Structures
1.
Amino acid sequence: MSIKVRIPVPLQKLTGNQVEVECNGEDIKDLVDNLEKKYPGIKARLCDENGNLRRFINLFVNDKDIRFLEGDKTQLKDGDEVSIIPAIAGGADFREDQIERYSRQIILPEVGGMGQRRLLNAKVLIIGCGGLGSPCAYYLAGAGIGKIGLVDSDVVELNNLQRQIVHFTKDIGRQKVESAKEKLESINPDVEVVTYPLRLTSENIMDIIEEYDMVVDGSDNFPTRYLVNDACVMSNKPFSHAGILRFGGQATTIIPHQGPCYRCLFAEPPPPGMVPSCQEAGILGAVAGVLGVIQATEVLKYILGKGELLLGKLLIFDALEMSFRKLTVQRNNNCSVCSDRPTITELINYEQFCGVRSKTCQVGGGN
Ligand SMILES: [Zn+2]
């Protein structure tokens, strides 16, 4: 009895680079056991610890998917051809370590091989490596976002460590972007981390965001928030907004011209001094974590094209009540940047707009 087994690229290392091998077995289960005897390690690739076939790998007997036959009890006969077909996307197989690394999300029907490929091809810019940017960056790196840009001009200070979890005590005094890059690369070497140790300005922001599919605003001041909003609207770049203070926070996702922008929501910043900063009013570190992780979740959903984004919704989180409220936000027909007749068509001086003297403004810093 002889059965031809076609081996996919990721498993060919185990068969000495053979594309097709001869084996035998009464049924699929038997065949897998016999393959394991000839090519040790192959069973662990095909089956989980309980011996069930992994869900991102399909087997075909001749041209029939065994899930529609009798699964691993599907009988085999002499001359049958069995094909092992792993999840792939874009014509490129995943490496074995990638299949393992991302297995817990590849098995989600909303992700699958196609979704994982989208994540690996995605480019996300995170503005601010602080309380919001830290947890956000961790989860985006873990999920395998192919390229992560980090913008922050600050160095790590002792009072950051209570919430800015991408930085460690040993990093005090280092550039935040360098400290963050080191952690993200050690979580996942698949991720390319690009650092921008600079203050975002009207002059440099367009060139930077152009490179990316989506932007995460984790900044800590109003000039940067309006700068990011206007630049993203003008360049049609989706972005995730979040803000935090004391025990609460808010988040929304903005896709320019499909929903309201930040200026539709808040046409002008509050006068300087009216809304205290985290430095003045305090912030519970875990609250920053909640909002930063919500931002990461929105980015992943956007890239996967799954679920409902916080588009036209402002999510309000109150940790003391432990409540989430979702408010509906409309586009403002008179919005100065995203309406049909915008009055702001190029980037302005945002420090002046926000009434902040440039010397005291921490543009590019993390919340
Ligand atoms: Zn608007």
2.
Amino acid sequence: MGHKLLSWFILASIFIVAYVDAQWSVTGMTGVTSMHAMMVTPTTIIIIDKAENNPAAVLPDGTTTWAAEYNLVTNKFRPLKLSTNTFCSAGAFFGNGTFLSTAGGEPSKVVTASDGYRGIRYFQPCQDGACQIIETPSLLSSARWYNAMVTTPTGDILNLGGSVQSTGANSANKNNPTFEIHSANGNNKASPIQFLVDTLPYNLYPFVHVIPNGLWQGYYFIFANKASVIYDITKNVAVKALPEAPGGIRSYPCTGVATLLPLDYLDNYNPQFLVCGGQSNFNQFTNPAENTCARTNLGSPNPTWEADDFGGIPRVMPDVVHLADGYNVLFLNGASVGQAGYITGGGTLLASKPALTPVLYSMNKPLGKRWTQLTASTIPRMYHSVASLIPDGSVWVSGSNPNENYNTGGPFPTEFRVEIFTPPYLSGNARPQITAFKNQTSLNVSPIQVAYNEAVPVTYTLTGTPGTITATIAQPGFHTHSQAMSMRLVHLQITNIASSGQNTFTANIYMPPNSFILPPGPHYVFILNNGTPCAKAVWVLIG
Ligand SMILES: [Cu+2]
């Protein structure tokens, strides 16, 4: 009898845990570790590793490199030349669509790579295999390692914090508590920021977001360690400090993850920030990771914290992805024990127990009902892993190299395999297909220029009986070290839906009202049928 009950319990648990309609598949190889990655066109992702001797990433001159462009159509990578060390650096788009990479680490001992701490690199995305990274002789105002970058409402880039040399936890003598703004004409002047002094020693890769609306519109929300502040970058003053967030340490090496949740016109783009995972104790490599989250409403004059769990799975070094429906946020990758950092020379693992099961966060459900565990992967994604939404609504997952160099052995070898994760929302409903956008039928060849508030005519096909049709615009973000820099998703109003032939519809989609809600730059527009995204989003440039 007891046995029977136990087997029923086990069976029931399996049904609760595994979502059968989420899937994983291995599709390609990256050639370099995906330490940093960002969608740069609808078919290409730039991948930046640190200076490393990657045997398969061979340039035409026979040398190896540590950056590549991954092609989502061919599932092949194209090695990209670099000359400075991009170890633990940052990236963002300018409003005009040019990609900027800054900062890095010391000269390499294994390949010819010079000091990258003050590196500034440009990349003009292409889909013809011709574009290259251009490293400039101009330098950052000061050395930065583990800095954060975000596109500003003016189309410039804010570059924030970091340390002046590589380290475990940060310290006063290595701290770089400054920020600088990059504009298209390259203006670099550092300003001090006290918040990055007050948050020592856990302030590396600070989480930073433009506040879209409400009382604090246009200010920045900055979170590090357990502290956060609403900050006026123009005047360089802290406008409001929030109370300490509940739960453990959220910043490197006790690495948690954070995001500004998707924004909706239905609640007037009310900004809500969520931080999850991490570790309660530094240098306790067998300590379980944080199974906690904290959420705050930045639409409030006095934001406070609501504590939640992390979907039942302790997780350090998680990655976060806004799914295209704008209601569900995916958390994946990382480990359930330990902290971020390389396996030591003596073989001590800083993290173990890969957290293979993704969790889905349904942001509008009541507390206690927001989490769903999805189908697990079989590939550990430890330190230096990433994930990104791609234009077909699925999730591109790659990376993992907790070894100081390229290493095919050990418990967690250097991982080049790419996986595509298919979330449950891709099955169950017919998928719209956008056939015309702003009267153009040639889509995703170059970004279609759109303006704030513009009513854009669209045509799409959809078989069967249409369900509820919605629209969103997404910037998938620059992913590194549990950061999703500039990742942003906004619900779009869709009106005047009309049938214009068999299985063909026309409608108007309204772009977001202003650049605080969605900073300028390249983005992807989705149409969804009952929450199931279209076959391919449309690449636009807003601003
Ligand atoms: Cu790193």
3.
Amino acid sequence: MSPDLILAGAGLANALIALAVAERRPGARILMLDRAPGPSDSHTWSFHDPDLRLSWHRRLAPAIRCRWQGQEVRFPDHARTLRAGYASLDGAGLARLLEETPGVTLRWNAEITKLDSGSATLDGERIEAPCVIDGRGAAPSRHLVTGYQKFVGVEFEMDAPHGVTRPVIMDATVPQQDGYRFVYLLPFSTTRLLIEDTRYSDGAALDEEALARAIADYATDKGWTGHEVRREHGVLPIALAHAAARLWAEAQGGPVPVGMRAGLFHPVTGYSLPVAAQMADVVAAAGSTTAEVFAAVRAHALARAGDDRFLRLLNRMLFHGCPPEHRHRVLSRFYRLPEPLIERFYAGKLTRMDRLRIVTGKPPIPIRDALPCLREAPLLKETP
Ligand SMILES: Cc1cc2nc3c(=O)[nH]c(=O)nc-3n(C[C@H](O)[C@H](O)[C@H](O)COP(=O)(O)OP(=O)(O)OC[C@H]3O[C@@H](n4cnc5c(N)ncnc54)[C@H](O)[C@@H]3O)c2cc1C
């Protein structure tokens, strides 16, 4: 096969690109190469309904594992049910969808040892294509300064119905530890429950067993007993400062970076599905060479990084303007804001009025602590 498009990595960003390109350019030969032996069962990719356009709801529908009406947040001083629907995809569903998509060839066990703007090299095999996209997952960049969202999730089959009827996006009534701590619950059935313990922390070190024990304690506290069926963990970047133009200047001349390695994620949550869907539309509408796609993706990414400046400021106030044990107060205040604003926040579509609304009123942190957080340039200077 001589492909029109090589997608290096068959993770989330490239999966969405494959779906969008296959639909927009029927007949295009898309080759996806991934070193993993098969679809990941160590992921659930969730999103809020308003995060995605209708075309993406339609495209992803066959890969949805579970869908819910509404979601909850819980804080020591208030709790709230939010109306927005929520849904989760998994690796198996996404791989099934790709395998059924005409034009897409998915090769597992395909470790790429060299990648450039016109080819991918595997063990003893070189494959050429006019367009090469690099979606091989997160890669550290000195142009992106981050805090961390660290988590461990354990999926349980409970011995009896657990009684959770909708996703609990944040249960921050738990003792605060290692920064802002909350538990996230996804009820996949009346007895199947994902319990995830999350920390917004300064350091990237993840003590998986300690978090797993904290999850077991949380379950015991709720009176749930059952057995573990699956586990996932992650250390996601929370963007504090981003020199996007420098990142893209370094990538010039190579394959087109996408996904986490291109800094394309929601700065505050570290989630990337909505951004990946938007970027997949950009790729599908761009030309068919690496240079054309690079130019379109770069322009979109730079515009986005500019728009995200405000979210990075919020992160700096959360991580640098607030002692770790007080971070939950900022989030608690945020979740008292009007629901449409919260929905636009997750979708990355805050208006000017929304931004004003977030920072006015009783400040989440004292002004004197907020002032040193205003500029992001000093953080970038610190990077080697
Ligand atoms: C456990 C977990 C849960 C998450 N949950 C959510 C969520 O609910 N919602 C959300 O929006 N975001 C979520 N995220 C954050 C983010 O969306 C994911 O990390 C997402 O998978 C990133 O997409 P990506 O395409 O950039 O990278 P990945 O999905 O990580 O894909 C990279 C792929 O490249 C392959 N690869 C790497 N190197 C090579 C190589 N040399 N040769 C061949 N293949 C290679 C890997 O095997 C992998 O399949 C989660 C992250 C984690 C870790």
